[in-house]
């Protein structure tokens, strides 16, 4: 029944989006002067998820014990606007909602039923809001450019995927650990502060100094230092520093906005090597025999990105590949379990072995330790002058080695993008296998199949 449901959804979606324009152009752009050098542009997008999710052991959905749930939800509904007031001055505003399901993600404090149920009327909030000024404009005859800015921003350093665009992922979503502070000491992967960006020849740089959001989790006291577990508690936060530096061997990528492209579909020849960091003092706490210990957060990453056409030009084929290594230190045994758009809660009457990560689709995601991530995809041939449908199969693999766990964990993803009008109208299908450690010491895995409908203007 589930397979029939998803097959019907996929066919209906292809028919619905078949009317999408093949020539997007500048989109929703308003010129403020005759030559368009002063302009206002709007970008709108939504990502709708239809899922069949195998739930972690001991999960309740809507007070009903369940091992699998089929649902539909709003993964992202966003609006971004920027105004190029002058060649040097830019204003950016980005608002939206995330993760609204039929049962949660609604207005804060909403009850389970009625006009403001727990899954209804989510609060619109700012993702980005900053101004920037180009001190040294990028010019063909000059190697160096510099722009400075301030506000709630996405120039958070660390890795390419930490500043990834949600409009053009190759896989259905980011792996989440690329945003290591997500909704702890940041606001949906952003902090408020000052940033500088620019280029020097083939080198692109991004640096920022920010005030993290306050956290106040209380650590559980441990009798032995080896069992102490750090939690987010930064009091009056110290300023954080972040940076990302990238060498672009082939085509130069735009740094007009911070959002890094996930796959160019062969429209550029890109080969980049990057490295980044994030550091914030006294950001977590642990407790040993009643003594509170403060710990710094020190995060480092190195990555490589490749995107280029392959084969005969008339076939319009392309490959995309990305690999990243993360070294995370949040303090002893720090670990966060996260489930995207998680609709499950713990069943108090369950008597079997539970997942240490909790209920629903939660899994060990972020922690002190090391993470390796890689993804690769290929855009299949299509000789049509303006192909109406392009297909890009992809796969991704993650290996996580967290200090808090006695075993390494592997994630596997496989899927395909169906491009009706590039990233502007696409359908993505993906099956993901997530690892679980049970409270009896055993390991297992659960799966999730997702169809995403995306459109942006």
From TrEMBL:
Q: So which residues are the signal peptide here?
A: 1-18
User: What's the domain of life for this entry?
Assistant: Bacteria
Swiss-Prot/TrEMBL keywords: Signal
What is the protein's name according to its record? Porin
